[in-house]
Specification:
Blueprint: H1 3-22, H2 26-44, H3 50-81, H4 92-106, H5 114-120, H6 124-131, H7 136-144, H8 151-168, H9 175-192, H10 198-222, H11 227-230, H12 238-252, H13 260-272, H14 276-301, H15 323-334, H16 339-345
Length: 346
């Protein structure tokens, strides 16, 4: 891609995100979301592969429908209340439409079908943007309207997302699809606590971004996009693969790694809200995701493929390992001792 075009699209992504997270008016928030959508579509389709073009079209159609619902919701609320303030969402129909629109934008179940296909058709770095930066504006809108949303509906969507994210990730062999279902599952954890403790939901999102960033960077550096190539990637970068294993286990939420902190705090908060059955269900559903995280960690370190592969094995990587991979990997695995400091900021 032309460097000037890449600079324009990257600046538009930052601008759209900034407009949405800093706006207090529905029209400005909608404008920021539209700028984000228009900026990411060329980045998805930049390889000119038919799969990338298909992913860009799917993403555009879903985001267009979600933006229409968002605008319709804000219009209904303005019709009944006479104001366009985001925090004054009081009309029940508008609240339901907003929840549906944001669920489509985020990829929450049962509106999740587009997300794995779009990630599969994108490059690893674009998939990272779709999994992290593109989810920040919709999550910000949910945080601003959390006091007006239906807790029962959000809890239902959260349990569905945790179940489908874990269940459908079990039979996948493409790493980007596995990480897509992992994102859906983590969105369920964020959504279940959103109404009761919005700051904790935002902390969970930040820690998820911190953990998933080194994974996408590592598979982009080693050109590992499916399980069969992951089995031999340890011959190219053994140290990076060992770090990848720890990051995957952290994403699974195993102590004493950083990923254990948000799940621990969410279960604790749900227990305080007398929602022990919900906490038990979502904790049990996380075991489904734990299975494929352990499978990925196993494949990345100590196994060889059971049969000869048709591709030529690369015994070295063409690009040197980047410094940010080491920094993000360290943060995504070693933050748990700092949990008292993190708790003090909530």
């Amino acid at each position: 891609m032309n460097p000037y075009a890449s600079l324009i699209f990257s600046a538009s992504l930052i601008l759209g995100t900034t407009i949405t997270i800093s706006s207090n008016h529905w029209m400005m928030a909608w404008t920021g979301l539209e700028i984000n959508t228009l900026a990411i579509i060329p980045l998805i389709s930049k390889s000119h592969h038919p799969r990338a073009t298909e992913a860009a079209i799917k993403y555009f159609l879903v985001q267009a429908v979600a933006s229409t619902l968002l605008l319709f919701s804000s219009t209904i609320n303005a019709w009944h209340t006479g104001q366009w303030d985001i925090t004054q969402l009081t009309q029940p129909t508008a609240s339901l439409l907003l929840t549906t629109a944001i669920s489509m934008k985020l990829g929450l179940a049962p509106f999740h079908f587009w997300f794995p296909e779009v990630l599969q058709g994108s490059s690893p770095i674009t998939a990272l943007l779709l999994s992290t930066m593109m989810k920040l504006p919709p999550i910000t809108i949910l945080l601003l309207t959390s006091h007006s949303l239906n807790p029962t509906l959000l809890t239902t969507l959260a349990i569905l997302s945790a179940a489908l994210g874990g269940w459908m990730g079990l039979n996948q062999t493409q790493l980007r699809k596995i990480l897509a279902f992992s994102s859906i599952s983590h969105l369920g954890w964020m959504t279940v606590i959103l109404v009761y403790n919005p700051k904790l939901a935002l902390l969970t999102f930040y820690l998820y971004c911190l953990m998933t960033t080194p994974i996408f960077h590592t598979i982009n550096t080693t050109k590992t996009l499916k399980l069969t190539t992951m089995m031999t990637s340890w011959t190219k970068t053994p140290v990076m693969n060992a770090a990848l294993m720890l990051t995957l286990l952290s994403l699974a939420g195993l102590p004493p790694l950083s990923g254990f902190l948000p799940k621990w705090l969410i279960i604790q908060e749900l227990s305080k809200q007398e929602m022990a059955p919900t906490a038990t269900i979502i904790a049990m559903l996380s075991l489904l995701g734990l299975f494929f995280y352990l499978r990925l960690a196993y494949y990345s370190t100590i196994t060889l493929p059971p049969n000869s592969t048709s591709r030529i094995k690369q015994w070295h990587i063409n690009k040197p390992a980047k410094t940010q991979i080491a920094i993000f990997t360290s943060l995504s695995t070693l933050l748990l001792p700092l949990s008292p400091l993190i708790l003090a900021t909530l």
